[in-house]
Known about the structure:
This protein is an alpha+beta fold. The chain is built from six helices and four strands.
Amino acid sequence: MTEKTNIRHFDEISARIFAALYESFPLPLDIDCIELTKAAEIEANGAATKETRICIATLTWLQEEGYLKYQVKGKFDAFNIVLTAKGLSVLKAVPSSLETKTSIGERLVTAVKSGAINTAVEVLKIIFAVA
């Protein structure tokens, strides 16, 4: 089995983050990257696993691009994360190319909850195309 690329990790983590934030909006969430990535533990030297480092970098990138904001970022987590107006607007959009009138956010939440991560990644591509 081939190892996942960094971009694949980014896509899966972004999908999970967006789904969780959309479902909880307007209430902020705390996200623990070790838990989100299902990393069994940190490495023996106390460093984050590759997946956890990608999760932390993903949170930073999503904030820098204006999709979300948070108040404090710890070593492996971030606190009081909430969608920005840009993030919410993209997730509430219903692209005309979709046959159903379900928002991107609703489709993403459904895919993540059902474990259909490949579908969630495809929905994520729509998010970044719309923005």
